[in-house]
Amino acid sequence: MTILLQTNPNNQDDRNTEEQSNHWAIPWHAYLLVLPAVSLIAVLFGGGLVLAFLQSIGLMGLTSTGAVSLDAYQQALTSRQFWQSLGLSLYIALTATAISTVLSIGLALLLLRAGRWASFACQLTLPIPHLVGIAGILLLLSPSGVLSRVLVHLGWISSDQDFPLLVNDRANLGVMLHFLWKEIPFVTLILLAVLRGIRPEYGMQARALGASRWKCFWTVTLPLLRPGIISASLIVFGFVFGSFEVPFLLGSTFPKTLPVLVYQAFTDLDLNQRSVAIALGLLLSGVSISLIALYLWLGSGKPFRRVMRRAQG
Amino acid sequence: MTHPADIIRSTARLRPTALLRTTSLALIITVLFLPFLPLLIWSFAQGWYFPQLVPTQWTLANWAGLASAGSRVGQGFVQSLVIAGISTVLALLVGLPAGRALGLMEFPGKGAIKLFLLLPIIVSPLATLMGIQFVLIRLGLSGTLVGVVLVHLLPTIPYMTLVLSSVYANFDPGYEAQARSLGASPSQVLRTVTLPLIAPGVVVGALFAFLISWNEFLLTFFVGSGRVFTLPMVLFTSLQGGNTGLTAAIAITSIIPAVVFLLFSSQALQNDAAIGGLGDV
């Protein structure tokens, strides 16, 4: 048994081909294994979307008349608020994703050569609920928060009125800071795991052949890190774009982000607003799915290449 | 070509670089910890008025307030625990076979299936939630633990499957073949070979799923209809009230399980094979 454990092969490609030949003849076995997970997601997520769609076109729901109507979409798309909210949500999600991805690449590289305690400390915000982060940031950055008190104590400002508005501000700085605080450790954790899997020999080889540290990073490390960067930023973008509680509690009161707008319409006393809320929610999903597809296509082409290869046999 | 002298020079430069790295890391870690500071102080503070730097009076009243029935913290703690526990077990049950297929086998449509399973974590669940809510009300599941557990499967299954498929990708099925050829039954192989070998990765997956469910707010907020009070719901309500000290104490309480879990399994979180799965969408 000890010998068995020690002979863990490192060459993964060989093993995969072997498995592939074993199971290629009977792929239904693989389909059977993914069936429970796929059907649960299909029923809950897909089913939910279908039900939402039926409600948004008036075929289902409390105010349903039984006839197809696109009123909800018309109402959603013609309101100025929708476009303002969409713009704000896109701005927050794109900025937060870009900044946290770039900073995480740097942090992951820093941590790669640091001790394990450091990577552990950097990941401590990871399991913290967003609401706790929100509470902490409110108490830290609000006009009467700890930072403002420190500045008064240092004599930099004389009262809380002089303190710049960092939460519930128009620029949504508080929202941005919260997402950076929460998502940088997440992206770093993923990138660090990918970095540790990269053989150091590649970098050494490039350096031995005369590449500068910088060139080695651009031509060796970054390309190898790319799949990790793409998946991590994808998850972050999707999450930030659809996040509700962070902009609800830390964000600007006007304009609101799209999820907050959806919630507001969904809880409106006027029940006709409910189908508008669902239409808004579906538009939100639609925008997010198209952006993700675009990003995957631009970023890696991996899923598409795979389809192509299969189509070519 | 790198001249040997360059290499010597770069070794000499190593010390200031290391110092710079340690300093910047210390700075980053301090900033990451900063939001916890006011929470910690507020939870022990009595009347901490602006612009006092430290409270003039300290108290344990906020912590004692957690125990009172009015704060609903006890109820929230238990409900969070039950919901997160059940969602994790269910996600594990469907994630193990799916992870095996995605990690070890090649089959047509694998990429598409992987992407499909990821949809609930990259696309906002809002539309889905509003769609499901209507049916859950009809079924009498809105505002029940069952309804909340069901929607908590939306984020837990994808994360679990992703982590487990990466775990299986680093697992050599040759061990199973070996055990089978030596006469072990399939269930014996599962118990004595497969499960012990993938156990560390399974711990990471379960950890992730548990914490995702424990921290979940939006799904519970929509489907719980104000009747299911998980800890994030209690915290949300308290945040909108005025008692800062109590809110801080609730916030700290809700991170205790996460921190205990992390410390308990810090070894497991260093499992790059499992975490790397998240980087392979």
List the helices and strands and how they pair.
The complex is a heterodimer of chains A (313) and B (281).
Chain A: H1 2-6, H2 12-23, H3 28-56, H4 71-78, H5 80-112, H6 116-122, H7 130-141, H8 146-154, H9 173-197, H10 200-208, H11 213-242, H12 245-250, H13 258-266, H14 273-299, H15 302-311
Helix pairs in contact in A: 3-14, 4-14, 5-9, 5-11, 7-9, 9-11, 10-11, 11-14, 13-14
Chain B: H1 4-12, H2 14-33, H3 36-43, E1 45-46, E2 57-58, H4 61-67, H5 73-104, H6 110-122, H7 126-138, H8 145-169, H9 174-181, H10 186-215, H11 218-223, H12 231-240, H13 244-264, H14 266-269, H15 272-275
Antiparallel strand pairs in B: 1-2
Low-confidence stretches of chain A: 1-21
Helix content of chain B: over 70%
Distinct helical segment count of chain A: 15
Query: SSE string of chain A, helix = H, strand = E?
Result: HHHHHHHHHHHHHHH
Name the quaternary structure. Answer: heterodimer
Low-confidence stretches of chain B: none
How large a portion of the residues of chain B is in β-strands, by DSSP E?
under 5%
Please count the beta strands of chain A (DSSP E, at least 2 residues each).
0
Determine the strand fraction of chain A and express it as a percent band: under 5%
Q: Which class of the largest domain in chain B in CATH terms?
A: Mainly Alpha
As for the number of domains of chain A, it is: 2
Task: Kindly name the structural category of chain A.
Answer: mainly alpha
CATH architecture of the largest domain in chain B: Orthogonal Bundle
The biggest beta sheet of chain B is recorded as: 2 strands, antiparallel
CATH topology-level fold name of the largest domain in chain A: MetI-like fold
Work out the number of β strands of chain B. 2
Return the CATH architecture of the largest domain in chain A: Orthogonal Bundle
